[in-house]
Amino acid sequence: MRSKAIFASFATISIMSLFVFVLVSPFMIMALSEAASGALGPVLGLLVAIGLTVGINALLWFISPWLMDLSNRWFYRCRDMSIEELGQYRPAVAQFVWNTCQKHGIQVPALKLIDDMNPTAYCYGSTVNRSRLVITRGLLHYLDDEELKAVYAHELGHIIHRDFIVMTVASVLLQVLWQIYVAAKNTRSDKGREAAMAMAAVAYAFWWVSQYLVLYLSRTREYYADEFAAQETMNPNALSMALVKVAYGIARQPASTFSKQLLGGTRAMGISDPRAAAGTGQAYATANGGGHAMAGALMGHQTGDVAVTAEGIGRIEKVFLFDLFNPWAKVLELGSTHPLTGKRIKALCDQAGSLRQQPLFRFDPIDAYGRQLDHGRLYGNFTLEVGIWFAPQILMAAMIFLGTLGAVAGSATVGALGFGGVLLGFGAGSALRGLYKFPSIGQPQLTTVMDLMMDPYASPLRGKPVLLQGALIGRADAGSSFGEDMMMEDQGGGLMMLNYEHWLPLFGNAWFGYKTVRALIGQPVQARGWFRRGVSQQVDLDEMITAQGETVSSYTAFWGRFGGVAAFVLGLLFTVGLVAAVATG
User: Are β-strands 464-475 and 524-533 bridged in parallel, bridged antiparallel, or unpaired?
Assistant: First the structure.
């Protein structure tokens, strides 16, 4: 992994630097060619923008530790925690941190603690010896000594590998590309306007590609830090279980406004992506017979005393089948700073095998019912769904192509049909996508969140009709008094977000969130809707019945289908009218 991380860093920085060079050179030539007429504005503006971007980022890099200290203290009530204090909580962990720093010739980072029960950890700094390492009290609560050592080792890996420096350089190049795009787009010179617009389009394309390069670099360095932790602790399984327990802790803790701010503000730096916590966490929650039983067991000092049964390990493995084998997982990961948890744990299990240790998990391609995974079904569904996902764009492009053929052939009618049918193509594609997303719901069988999460064929596009039974435990957005989406806990301890839509968009949602959701929280309910799985999971609500027999109807399917159908009808009317006008005129 070390060579892969070095290559990813070198390749990403080199490609982005090449992008900047390719763009700056012609921009300078174009601007300097107008210097004789005194039109130095574009080149001066670009140089000033790039200079300011580099200078401000250099200054921020230098003072960032103090700025982060202030923001952490202000927003998250973060305080200093000496290694001696860590030793009072966990002597073996404190000794491990000290030994690791001595081994690699660095100072012990400034250790800090946030008094929040959501388990996470992150580091920041400008140089190796001016770094900070932050943990929350949740890590001390949920992890045993070996798991906590692994988390500290992961963060020390980021520090020793200078990851925050590499990511800062990549971020600066990304900002420079954006400044070039803005400068080219705002060029006012008539002489160079067309060339500037073309350059703006290229700069935007380079910036868009570079975003994904930076995200790829971030994911690669997460793998590298995982590998470092496994090597330093000689216990890859400890970090595997730590990642599972971190997800469990995030999923189980109340989603208070403070917690949402903490997890959201530190998401890119944290030990794992909190958005992906629910599925992994609830697998662990049900590992020993239900979330409530496990929650009670976890009230002690360490969770290492709670043995996870073979059945529980098997459930966790099946939840990760989606991460490892569903092709949608690769697409969903592209926009993430962290690898999918299942893929990280798979790499750690492979490393355990290379150390001649028994891996904690096995990831055989066998579903929860003992059947071999059908890769034809996985990739066949994916190919179909990619086509449906991009159906509006594909049909719009087809209509533009038709219009171009008509113009070349001199057929005004065909040209009008093509160019006038762009809205028709968009509407037809959107209608197809909406109808596919929301199949007929019928009378689905009662299921559990755990069963849904163990389905490796789940899709972020095609909704699966489901019926869930449990209790509403709060809003999906805990910090909002008007949030209409709700969080449900089923009888097995599984958590699921319920996506609600009122018949009156925006205002109706806000009114429902303010007036009705407060009264529903805490009530047993039965929810019917369409399940989708992405990085996180949700049910688009169709109908919810409370214990008192009250029915709450949701219009997610209606609005999901209506927009595309309406666009199709409008496009059809416009196209027919335009073709008729051309034919008669």
Answer: antiparallel
Higher pLDDT, 287 or 16: 16
Last residue of a domain, one of 220, 241, 256: 220
**Which of these, 146, 155, 140, lies nearest to 108 by C-alpha position?**
155
CB 27 within 8 A of CB 42: yes
Is residue 143 included in any domain, yes or no?
Answer: no
Q: Is 312 within a domain? A: no
CATH number of the CATH domain containing 409: 2.40.50.200
CA geometry: angle 220, 224, 228, nearest 5 deg: 170
Structure confidence by residue, pLDDT tens digits, 309-332: 666 788 888 888 998 999 999 888
3-state secondary structure 473-533: EEECCCCCCCCCCEEEEECCCCEEEEECCCCCCCHHHHHHHHHCHHHHCCCEEEEEEEEEE
pLDDT in tens, 203-238: 889 999 998 998 999 999 999 999 999 999 999 999
Residue 127 lies in a domain: no
30-44, 307-321, 331-345, 553-567: the lowest-pLDDT one: 30-44
Q: Flag whether 241 is in a domain.
A: no
Domain that holds residue 438: 383-585
Last residue of a domain, one of 154, 185, 220: 220
In this structure, are residues 351 and 230 in contact, taking their beta carbons and an 8 Å threshold? yes
C-alpha span between 116 and 567 (Å, rounded)? 48
Q: What is the DSSP letter of 221?
A: H
What's the number of domains the chain is made of?
2
As a whole number, the mean pLDDT across the chain is 83
Does the predicted model carry a pTM greater than 0.90? no
